[in-house]
Amino acid sequence: MVRTLPVAAWHSMPAYDMIHTLRGLCRREVESLCDFLEGLATIDQKGIHLELGFPNLFELCRIEFGLSEGCIYRRIQVARKLRHYPELLRALRSGDINLTLASMLCPYLGRHAWETLLSCVRGQSKRQACKALRDLDQQVKTPDGPTSRVQYLGGERYSYRLRIPSHLHHQLERVRELLSHQVPEGEWTGILETLVQYYLRKNDPHEQISPSPDLWLEYSSTSRYIPKGLKQLLLERSGFQCQYISAEGRRCSQTRYLDIDHIHPLARGGETRMDNLQVLCRAHNLLKGDTAITHHNQFSTREKKEKPAKETFSQKFQKITKG
Ligand SMILES: [Zn+2]
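# zinc ion complex -> structure
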């Protein structure tokens, strides 16, 4: 990267010129930030990050641009609002608000008039703007519905704040009652932990033990139904990770929201067989459906080069399905 000014130039510069120069640098930073946000919004709308093998915008920004988590979060949050609220970008470009204030405004957009929101935060510190926006929300009744806020408190602690409808409140109270033998104090952290562990034991593939291969013998390869055992095996083979690989050879790193996909669709004669199934994250499964891009060859040739996560198990299964 080329230096804008040599260090020596700063030392010999009169104070007024220094401020003037710094102001110019800030101005350029704002302009490049706004250009960046517009570019990011376009990438998001067109799904370009998915085609390149990134599971989401966050990973693209982290790996390609080396931005910190907070920076990425604010940029994505604002970029996603630009399509419907272009005034946000105008306020950023004009210097009325900075990125932090723009990010703070995002949850309030559409709930209050733009001019009202802008007057709450323009020229304010983060703390002042936060208070003004909260006060504004209290003046006007906000729509019903669950809202949530997760805050990192440092160390191993997080704070969750939820606004929930009354029926959910009653259901939670009933759960607390039923769990009174396990969580005698009825403390919500204990209740939540019990519920989460129960759900994960039932649904998280990482927590499940591979079933016997015998369980897969009775299924039709022309059926859309994928037996639980076969699904588990496919997940193990993929290393519990999306198998999308971009044209440049980048494999998607997503390990959550994984679906099983027929490489050659059933409707076009494909079968529910080990060699015609792959694991895709929700985003790449949708991308494949949307664009009708079939990465059949890409996947099948690359797949052979990858080391299977549970080779002996896979081989055992393939013998059964092919034989
Ligand atoms: Zn993916």
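# post-check
The beta strands are 147-154, 157-163, 258-262, 277-281.
The mean pLDDT is 82.
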